[in-house]
Amino acid sequence: MSLSHVVTYSPAYTVVPTYECFNRCTYCNFRIEPGKSPWLTLQDTEKILTRLQSQEVCEILILSGEVHPQSSRRESWFQLIYDLCDLALSMGFLPHTNAGPLSFAEMAKLQEVNVSMGLMLEQLTPQLLQTVHKHAPSKVPQLRLQQLEWAGKLQIPFTTGLLLGIGESSTHWWETLDAIAQLHENYNHIQEVILQPHSPGAQQTFDAPPFNPHQLPEVIAKARQILPVDITIQIPPNLVTDSSWLLACIEAGARDLGGIGPKDEVNPDYPHIQHQQLTDILEPAGWELVPRLPVYPQYDNWLSERLKEAVNRWRSASLLEESIK
Ligand code: SF4
């Protein structure tokens, strides 16, 4: 099987420190009102992680709702995220955090315990601040662009992406992709760009149809032209449920299916398609589904000694290959 016929995914489990979030994006199917979502404890997390040690999991995605930067609870929220990453790392997993915009100091601190980090750019157009992001101060495009820039300055391998079909135009897609390409040219730090089709869920108030999956291959093909070749395009297979269109997306240039675990916390109405089912779709079309780590090999030398050791254990022993047999 040639490398050009490889599609990757990350065997992952999502840990949610809290669902509370001070933003109110109208398409959200994740958030709970601040104060109404008890925070995860380290003890409970350790129990979950102990169970996962015998399963096919490498990446621990720490995905959190946001506590306001000015809140008196921000520091303890941030400390919990740090401690969860530290725990996961000490148990042999590779943490990747996505917890909304962070201060430069917070980002630098989390870098100690994350092999990569992520934040969706969503869309650069400020128009959405009048609509779906009207009550979401964290979704100010310049704030998010700055996060990508800081990640570059800090040399944090980074995942970002676009949410498609939330009221933007196709011109906005190309502008957003151009901005990502530009930042990558400056810092070389974007490992993946996710193209996520809006897929309505039971909780959201945004009343709009799903992004037409038949349009996705076209967007991927254009994104492939805009983005530098070393950035991988990722699509979430549970949101492209028609297998022929999933294959069309791959033909168009998508080469990664993201973290596959028991539950898609962001789109809880769309269960993940599991490994065997994905293989059954991909293999007859000549594609090999291969697990990957949450950090791409070209970034290994950006990592601290502690992180490098954890990554090397997975790479050198081919633990990942072993674990999915
Ligand atoms: S989409 Fe993210 S930032 Fe927006 S309300 Fe939901 S959890 Fe908060």
Automatic annotation (TrEMBL):
Oligomeric form and interacting partners: The FO synthase complex consists of two subunits, CofG and CofH.
Protein name, entry field: 7,8-didemethyl-8-hydroxy-5-deazariboflavin synthase
Function per UniProt: Catalyzes the radical-mediated synthesis of 7,8-didemethyl-8-hydroxy-5-deazariboflavin (FO) from 5-amino-5-(4-hydroxybenzyl)-6-(D-ribitylimino)-5,6-dihydrouracil.
Lineage per the UniProt record: Bacteria, Bacillati, Cyanobacteriota, Cyanophyceae, Coleofasciculales
Catalytic activity: 5-amino-5-(4-hydroxybenzyl)-6-(D-ribitylimino)-5,6-dihydrouracil + S-adenosyl-L-methionine = 7,8-didemethyl-8-hydroxy-5-deazariboflavin + 5'-deoxyadenosine + L-methionine + NH4(+) + H(+)
Keyword check for 4Fe-4S: yes
Keyword Metal-binding: yes
Alphabetic keyword roster: 4Fe-4S, Iron, Iron-sulfur, Lyase, Metal-binding, S-adenosyl-L-methionine
Domain (Radical SAM core): residue spans on this chain: 7-238
UniProt: [4Fe-4S] cluster binding residues: 21, 25, 28
PROSITE patterns, per database record: RADICAL_SAM (PS51918)
Details of cofactor binding: Binds 1 [4Fe-4S] cluster. The cluster is coordinated with 3 cysteines and an exchangeable S-adenosyl-L-methionine.
InterPro entries: Aldolase_TIM, CofG_family, Elp3/MiaA/NifB-like_rSAM, F420, rSAM, rSAM_sf
SUPFAM superfamilies: Radical SAM enzymes
EC number: 4.3.1.32
Pathway involvement of the protein, from the record: Cofactor biosynthesis; coenzyme F0 biosynthesis
Cofactor list: [4Fe-4S] cluster
Family named by the database record: Belongs to the radical SAM superfamily. CofG family.
